[in-house]
Amino acid sequence: MIFQVRTSHIGIIVVIFLGCIAAIPQVFANMSSNSYAIQYNNVNMTSGEKSSSSYTVTDTVGQTAAGRYSSSGYLVRSGFQYMYTIGQFSFSISNTMINLGLLTPGSFNTATTTLTISAKGAGGYQITAFENYPLKIVGTSTTIPDTTCDAGTCNEGTAGVWTNTSIPGFGYNMSGTDIPAAFINSTYFKQFANLSNNEPAQVVMSNTGVVKNNQATVTYKAGISGGQTAGNYENNIVYIATPGY
Length: 245
Prior knowledge:
245 residues, Immunoglobulin-like, 18 strands
C-alpha cells in the first residue's frame, strides 16, 4: 500500500511596510513683480530634465552643497535629484493560495509563486519572508518539518542541495532577479524563518537602486517519510516589502 498525505496548502500574506517616513517638504522659491512671477523648487544656473532623441538626463548646475549628508541624529539629502528620484513603490504576488497536492513518500511536490516589485526611491528596497509555523495539521502538533537538505546543514539562513527524495521536509528555492547569492541553482533550498521559534525574517529579494518590475520566482517543495501522519497540512508565508528612501 502506498502511504499518502492529503492536500497540503500554503496561504500567502503580502505586507507592504512603509515604516515611519517623514514627508519631504516641497520648498519653492518665489519671485514676482507686476509683470512676472517665477516659482520653482530649485533656482540655480539650471536644473531639471533635458532630453533629445538619444538621451534623457536630469541635472542641478550651480547649487551650493548638493549631496547626501548624515551624522548621528540626522540625514539630509540636498538637491534636485533626490526629490526627482522619489516615485511609485509597488509589490505584487502572482498567487496567494498554494496547493502542494497529495504528498507520497519517496517523491517531492513543488509549486511556485512569482514576486514582482518596482521601487523608484533612491534607497532601493528589500523583501523579507517568514512562515508562521511549519506545515502542520491545524489544531495539532503534527508537522512536516522544515528541510535540513541532503547534508543536514541548511536552515533559514543557509542554503543547501536538496535532491534526495528519502529526506523529507518543507523548503523553498529562489530564481530570477535580486535574489540571495546562496541560491546557486535550482537544487539549493532553505527553510523559511519560523515565527513560532522567534526566528527573524530573511531577505528573499533586495536591491539598493531604482528598479521597475523586477521579478523572482519562489519554488516551494515538500516531501514526507513513510511514517508521516495522514491529514491536511497548512501554514502561512508572510512577505514584507520595504522601500528605501
